Amino acid sequence: MIRNKYFQVIAQYIVILIIPIFLITLNARIVINSSSLYHYGFEKYSITDITRISHQDLMSVSESIRDYFNNAEEFLYVSTVVNNIKVYSLYNDREIQHMVDVKKLIQSSYLILNISTILLLLMLIFTIFKHRKKIVNTIYPISALIKYGSILTISIILILTTLSFFDFETVFYQFHILSFSNDLWQLDPSRDYLIAMFPTGFFFDTTIIIGAMTLIEAIILLIFSFLIPFFITKYRLS
Question: What's the predicted TM-score (pTM) here?
Answer without folding.
Answer: 0.91
